[in-house]
Write the structure tokens for this entry.
Amino acid sequence: MSEKQAKAETYGAVGNVRPGVSLLTDDDVHWFNEGTHFHLYEKLGAHPGQHEGRAGTHFAVWAPNAAEVFVMGDFNGWNKSRHELEARGGSGIWEGFIPGVRAGATYKFHIVSRLNGYRVDKADPFGLRHETPPKTASVVWDLSYGWSDQVWMEGRRERAKLDKPMSVYEVHLGSWMRLPEEEDRWLTYRELAPKLAAYARRLGFTHVELLPVMEHPFYGSWGYQTTGYFAPTSRYGSPQDLMYLIDCLHQHDVGVILDWVPSHFPTDEHGLAYFDGTHLFEHADLRKGLQRDWNSYIFNYDRHEVRAFLISSAFLWLDKYHVDGLRVDAVASMLYLDYSRKEGEWVPNRHGGRENLEAIDFLRRFNEEVYRRFPDTQTVAEESTAWPMVSRPNYLGGLGFGYKWDMGWMHDTLKYFGNDPIHRKYHHHQLTFRGMYAFAENFVLPLSHDEVVHGKGSLMGRMPGDEWQRFANLRLLLATMYAQPGKKLLFMGGEFGQWNEWYHEGSLDWHLVQEGNLHGQLQRWVGELNWFYQREPAFHQTDANPEGFEWVNCDDAEQSTLSWLRRSPTSGEVILVALNFTPVPRYNYKVGVAGGGFWQELLNSDAVEYGGSGQGNLGGLEAAPFGWHRKSHSLTMTLPPLGAVFLKRTP
């Protein structure tokens, strides 16, 4: 029996389309057309159900410029004309109920345009599951799942507050860990769940951020060329399998952030592009509608239904998948009409400016609706320019995001660390400039995937010096990130000093990590930093508040040192951060502190257990009543080579 015959036998009871059977009320249609329906994943697409006691599937798709729309699939031998949908008035929606079609059936919409007889087979824009690429059909599916993360969900509003610790482990699921004994295959969602959850928890990360898991045809896009805005990629399993992964992370007290891409989408014929014979989701004018950097289409944010489509996508992940936050990719490309365009290649807005007013309105509405419906989550913007008030509320004129990636800090800091230490005194400003704007936004300090690809090398590979100095530099880089205000993000592999640049077709080099070697010791250091960051209120309560930060000495460029204080406004506890960016130990180094008493050395990146030389302050120092750095007392301390020390004043 052929596969087609087997499918025909399976769906032998499939009946004709039942017109007039709909999940959409008149109100649903009205709200969709005015762009205010944000639960479209419950109404459009394919939904198994019943009609007049007979099981089947409701189908609905938006194609306002179609003359005819058909459902084709394995249940009708992929017949392009057997099951025709009915137009819902002038709404642009085509719908119908097909008896006998059950969950697991594969399908596409065959669309006949009113324009020039254009015909095309399209995957479902609202499909909840799709075939595994390179196949491109959608799959009828039900998202039912029995969650076991009630404790997490009940407490996550408290965790989402700005004064709570947030340390993010950024992960690409297909290359985090592979099985060399099985032809280097990637792990499934369910195989990843216990391993990733236990690992993130052991190292003290509060969240895992996943590079886009939404379905994408080209694996090498890492998920950033999305076609299935309502479906997780089937490469790693079913929607329920992804839910299991998120559930498992929550049960280990680890939150989940998803990368989400409302900025552009690929031009693949089966996707959103030229959907009904017109530029439905994208701008028809390619000066507005084509993103040249990625050869992808830009959403038409001025179209009501497109805004409802995108916000409904965001709601799906927050609602059905219990996701704790969304990181919005490439926000800068949305904000500027002239982004990566030359003079004459873009169209000014109605005021003659370069700002994309429709995208700005969309982002504000997106954030407003997310925080209204899911106040216990966060949104994060990857915005690479100096656009003001990205993470400030709409009512103040901001874009309404919860956080913004601090790309300036990342570029300046990595550039500084790339210098040989003997030259660093000439680049001291690259470390201190952030003080000019550190609290202008609610920042996340990212050492992300973008910094370890395209020939940039791994974090370890970017550090200068011999092997010992490279590890010391990386420990110092991470200490610098954790010690200053802002939430933290580290891409996988950086926590143990991967030598190779990240490659999405291979696994991280886990064989490098062994107990007692430099990679294992670096991994231990990252764990210590994470748990210290969580444990000490002075290190996280004022990540977005200048009240808890004070420079002690930011001017010692000659010796390439920095020192500052972090304070907890609730407990009054004070922690001194002192950093030495050269391989020369600084003995009898004097630092001013506020108040006498004993200052306990809590962490030292040069400790032997982290791979250091073991130089430090013998557990702590007594403050002397000699003023220094505008302070009443001072410490005469040892700053270890390429080292960071954190000291806390004890009663």
